[in-house]
Every structure is written in structure tokens, then in C-alpha cells.
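FORM 7B: Structural annotation worksheet

SECTION A. Query
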Amino acid sequence: MNTVPFEPKPYHWSGPPPGEAMSAPPRFYTDPAIFEAEKTHIHLKTWFFAGRVDEIPAAGDYKSIETVGGPVLLVRDEKGVPRAFANVCRHRSSTLLDGCGHARSILCPYHAWSYRLDGALMGAPGMNDAPNFEKSKFGLTPIRLEVWDGAIFLNYDTAAPDLRSYLGNMPDLLGSHRMGDMVKVWDIQIEIGANWKLVLENAMETYHTGMVHSETIGAQRSISFPTQGEWHCIQVLSDRSIAVLGDTEAFPMIEGLSEQAGKGAFFTVIEPTTQFAFAQDCMWWLAVRPLAVDRSLLSIGGAFPRHFLDLPDFERRAAPYFSRWEAVAKEDVGILEKQQAGLSSALARPGPLCWRDDKVLALNQWIRSRLPSDILDEVIA
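SECTION B. Predicted structure
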């Protein structure tokens, strides 16, 4: 049963009052020791978005992705079950499949070891003469996978809480969008010369939109939600979809949306690296893949209700959404790379936060609460 009511307010503040609360020290975004600690204590222990089940709709369909834990292969097995494996051969660790496509089996391009779609080793040329070799012991290494409403999440930690527990009351607020009935129609990948945390912080405040996005979405106003679980939420208020720019024709509102969902677009962060955004007619996401302390890969995708795709003019009407998502993302990339450069200055210092930075503070508090105190004391003292 939920213990946190959804009572949106202009902001939800935790910690020192606005003006006294400070941004994180620059080394939080520039020190390799922090990045390595985050990898060990956060990224390899928490759930992250890897794709959608409609991207691998049939047995044999696959998709490869890069993650902070290495290359990963998503595949639909012979029984139709979505699976995730380390995209690494058990012989001498070559990667196996690239991009996305369809395969009846998984064949290593190096020494032709082959695997069934459920990960079991099928063939290992030359190993018949190896004493005590047992094929059953050398299947692909599985990665924990759970699906929420069509979204695939992975976790390297087999002892972590299940995904639904992790999401808390997020499905209650967003359920009326029926994400499981949507279909992915667009995506891009953008490499950013900035720390991964900056990407998520930027995605959860409207303070910057009037300046950074003056030529696209312009100034926005938002309210914040208290949440239960490992996620955060704001809502950008608008009586029409903000997934298109200006007076561009939008798709109709999704039938059955809750009263609150009809008031604007929800922007969420599922800690630590996933943003889902839900407008009245669609949803899109930012999946951040940390590459180095000052480098990240941003995967952006968008989805619409399945029946929208049957409209005779769907492609024409959808094109402005794709343009908006890409244009706004590239504007953000530009300012984030400037921010990363500034944080690298020997004279950079923490700055005061205002009430519009409430989720920046929340994101920082979540990260810091999961890092060892000795690392924080040494690097952020």
C-alpha cells in the first residue's frame, strides 16, 4: 500500500533551505575515484533501462548495447522469453553480435563457438579432445532481466530488490499512459563530453529552459512530486503535448489518461541513469551510459500508442516529434559540455541552489547516500 500521496507542489525540498543548500563540489563530476566508486556501488547494483520488448518481438530477434558493466546482448529465445547475456564468448571473450537483427543461433566470429538463443553452448570446435570439458558449464553468462509495462530493465546484482519494489509507486502515477501498449518508433545515440550525473540533473529542472532552449521549447514551469521508491518526478504544466514545438499539430490525447496526467508532461528519473518522459500523447526516454568520468553515451528513443501507427498520415505527423526530441537534446549537450569544462577549472566552487533546483539536490543526495563515506570524505571534503 502506498504511504506517499501524490500531492504536487511547486517544489519538494530536502536539506538546508533554498539559498543555503549548495551544489555538489566540482570533483564530484571530475574525479576518477568518484566515477569508479559509482560504478562499483551504484551502477553494478541498480536497475537500468536497456530497451523495449517490442524491439525484439520474435524468437531470434536481438539487440546489442553498451553498458557500464560491458557489452550486453538482449535476445528473444526459442520460447519467446526475453533474455539478457554478457555479449561475450565463453572461450576467449570476443563480443558476439553487433547492432540489432535476427539470428537462429549465436555464433562467435572468432573461433565459431555457438550458442542457443537461451544461452546454452551448442558447439565448441576442437574441444572434443579436451579432457573433462563439459559444454553445460560454458553457456553465455546471464544478466538479470525484468520487464515493466514493455520496458526492459537489467541489473548486474542478483541480490538486489525486484524491479517493482525498486519502482515503488511510479506505476501508480504513470499507469494511465499504458506504456506497455506503445511501440518504439525512433531513436538516436549521442556521445557527450560530460559526466553522467550532469545529464540527469539537467533533465530534471526547468530553470534552464528559457535560456538554453529559447529557440525550441522556451521557458517552462513545473511542479514536483513526492515519491516512494528509487525515482523522482516533476511535471511540466501544459494543456497540450510539449513533445512538439509551437503550433505543430499534435496527436490526440491518449484515451483514459488520469486527470493529473492530462495537465502536462511527467519527467521522471529512475535512479541512477534512466529518464522516462510522458506527454499526453506519447513517451520518450533518455538512457545514460557512463563511459568515463567526463564522457557519457546518451540513448534517446520515443514511442507512441500502437494504434497511432495505423493512422494513414502517421509518419508525417510523427516527424516533428523526432525533430523536437533531437533538437532539444543537442541543445542540452552543448550546455552540458560547457558545464563540464567549467567544473574542471581549478577555481570552480559549489554554488547556491534555488527552489527550482530541488530535484538536482535530490539526485545528488541519492548518489552520495550510496557511496562509501571514506570516498566522500577524501574526494569531496
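SECTION C. Observations
The mean pLDDT is 95. The domain at 51-145 is CATH 2.102.10.10 (Rieske Iron-sulfur Protein).

SECTION D. Sign-off
Analyst initials: ____
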